[in-house]
């Protein structure tokens, strides 16, 4: 009344005298403020573009009208400056990997600043983080190098396991008589299933020695027979 705060009007019919009295409606539901894209510099001096959404609720309508001229506009401006300040305190990796933590820090700062306005900030969500094109290429190369590194480590571990298994198999084959020959015959049988393969068979040294001994025995027998016939 006459520019002086008179009190809150509850829902229902109310009589308002023009010129003498005026009123403002305050929506007590949860509202969203879309913070436009902001250019910010991270702690490691990388320029990024960030936009967000803030969810808030008016809990004390009188403070929201009397303590700030336009609380909707004030929250939007406060969110923009707070978002730039918080992002400037973290590096790019922290911003990308800990987005929820950064959002929570922004929410706490805005909520504390809007308490005198009778406003409760419920949540802050960072929607998009836009990187410069050259930084996207650098991150892509870094990710590719990391994948190659993991691939080489896995391959090396596989080779170690294969070498250990081959050593155990060789030890087993050498400890059993005839096992090596059976394994050789099995390998030849597997290869011969494909007619396009050409097999070069290396005779084991033990077999050559056995054949050589057999030939010597035959020669000695023929020699003895020839001597007996004379």
Structure in words:
Helix content is 55%, strand content 15%. With 230 residues, the chain is of the alpha+beta class. Among the domains are: 31-131, Tetrahydropterin Synthase, Chain A, CATH 3.30.479.30; 133-183. Strand 1 (31-41) and strand 2 (47-58) form a beta hairpin. Helix 2 (71-87) packs across helix 4. The relative contact order is 0.09.
Strand numbers in spatial order across the main sheet: 1-2-3
**Helix/strand/pairing category:** alpha+beta
Identify the quaternary structure here: single chain
Strand content: 15-25%
What is the number of helices? 7
The overall average pLDDT, rounded, is: 77
How many strands appear in the DSSP assignment? 3
Low-confidence stretches: none
Please report the first level of CATH classification, the CATH class of the domain at 31-131: Alpha Beta
Elements, N to C (H/E): EEHHHHEHHH
Write the layout of secondary structure elements.
Elements: E1 31-41, E2 47-58, H1 61-66, H2 71-87, H3 92-97, H4 99-114, E3 119-130, H5 133-175, H6 179-192, H7 205-229
Antiparallel strand pairs: 1-2, 2-3
Helix pairs in contact: 2-4
List keywords for this structure.
single chain; 230 residues; alpha+beta; Tetrahydropterin Synthase, Chain A; three-stranded antiparallel β-sheet; 7 helices; 3 strands; rod-shaped
Structure at a glance:
This protein has helices at residues 61-66, 71-87, 92-97, 99-114, 133-175, 179-192, 205-229, and strands at residues 31-41, 47-58, 119-130. By secondary structure, the chain is an alpha+beta fold.
């Amino acid at each position: 009344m006459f520019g002086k705060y008179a009190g809150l009007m509850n829902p229902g019919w109310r009589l308002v005298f023009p010129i003498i009295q005026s009123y403002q409606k305050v929506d007590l539901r949860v509202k969203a403020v879309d913070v436009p894209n902001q250019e910010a510099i991270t702690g490691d001096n990388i320029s990024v573009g960030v936009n967000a959404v803030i969810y808030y609720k008016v809990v004390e309508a009188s403070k929201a009208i009397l303590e700030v001229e336009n609380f909707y506009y004030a929250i939007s401006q406060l969110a923009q400056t707070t978002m730039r300040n918080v992002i400037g305190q973290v590096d790019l990796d922290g911003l990308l990997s800990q987005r929820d933590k950064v959002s929570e820090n922004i929410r706490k700062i805005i909520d504390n600043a809007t308490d005198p306005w009778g406003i409760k900030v419920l949540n802050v969500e960072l929607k998009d983080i836009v990187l410069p094109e050259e930084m996207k290429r650098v991150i892509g190369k870094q990710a590719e190098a990391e994948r190659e590194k993991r691939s080489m480590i896995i391959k090396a571990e596989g080779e170690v396991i294969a070498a250990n298994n081959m050593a155990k198999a060789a030890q087993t084959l050498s400890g059993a008589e005839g096992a090596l020959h059976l394994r050789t015959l099995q390998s030849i049988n597997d290869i011969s299933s494909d007619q396009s393969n050409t097999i070069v068979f290396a005779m084991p040294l033990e077999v050559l020695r056995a054949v050589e001994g057999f030939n010597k025995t035959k020669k000695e027998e023929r020699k003895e027979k020839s001597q007996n016939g004379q």
